[in-house]
Amino acid sequence: MSTYYIVLAIYFCIIFAIGIVAARKTEGNSDYVLGGRSLSPGVTALGAGASDMSGWLLLGLPGAVFVSGLDQIWLPIGLTIGAYLNWHFVARKLRIYTENVGDALTIPSYFYARFGSGNRTLRLMTALVILIFFTLYAAAGFVSGAFLIQTLFHIPYTQAVWIGAIFLMVYTSIGGFLAVNWVDFFQGSLMFFALLITPIVTWYNLALKWSSKTVHLYRCLN
Questions:
Q1: Fewest C-beta in 10 Å: which of 59, 99, 117, 185?
Q2: CA–CA separation, 32 vs 8, rounded Å?
Q3: 212 falls in which pLDDT band (50, 70, 90)?
Q4: Is 177 exposed, middle or buried (0-12, 13-18, 19+ CB in 10 A)?
Q5: Which 8-state DSSP code applies to residue 38?
Q6: pLDDT in tens, 30-78
């Protein structure tokens, strides 16, 4: 258990350090909301992937496969196709147009600037969609983080939710989008290596167990 606390403390220190560095590089509203449009494609892509797929990929998807079977494999396939289409057909044009219409920092402000100041309904509907569905998405992220903290440290679920929420709000509020994206890039790198290493370690441990059982059976038969 002490090892878990040490690792968690190191992890928190790294995240807070990233938040502080990002805060020092944030000079205005554009920096805080969009990182000054200065992030590299690799950092942006891995950060967006980690933000989008962290909880459901490492907790939700394995649980769905365990409960419902391998038919759930269509979830990551569909997401991969959708993400590719989004980045290929939408992201590049949106990146260019938002800057051309007066450096729009949000989707509602982009629609407001592009389709005229009189079209307030579109801006309102876009804001409502983001508010409703991102609230649900953020809640799912809090739940997955709380389950992880609860499982590792054997603390009540409510306390785990508060720990995760406070931790997230602190580094997000002080560093803005730069902090969020750099933290997501860091966590995405951890996720990437974890997804590579976990099957190897699991297979190795299963092979050891099966080999020991095979040796025991051979001895019993002889």
A1: 117
A2: 27
A3: low
A4: buried
A5: -
A6: 777 777 777 777 777 777 777 777 777 777 777 778 888 877 888 888 8
Rounded Cα distance between 173 and 202, Å, is 38
Helix orientation angle between 157-221 and 41-55, rounded to the nearest 10 degrees = 80
Rounded to an integer, what is the distance from CA 86 to the centroid of its chain? 17
Radius of gyration from C-alpha coordinates of the chain? 22
DSSP 3-state of 119? coil
Other C-beta atoms closer than 10 Å to the C-beta of 21 total 14
C-beta of residue 122 within 8 angstroms of C-beta of residue 136: no
Hey, what are 109's tokens?
A: 């402000």
What DSSP letter does each residue of 70-93 carry, written as one string?
Answer: GGGGHHHHHHHHHHHHIIIIIIHH
Say how far apart CA 192 and CA 189 lie, in whole Å: 5
What is the residue whose two structure tokens read 């509203």? 29
Residue of 93, 123, 84 lying closest to 107 (CA atoms):
123
d(CA 61, CA 72): 8
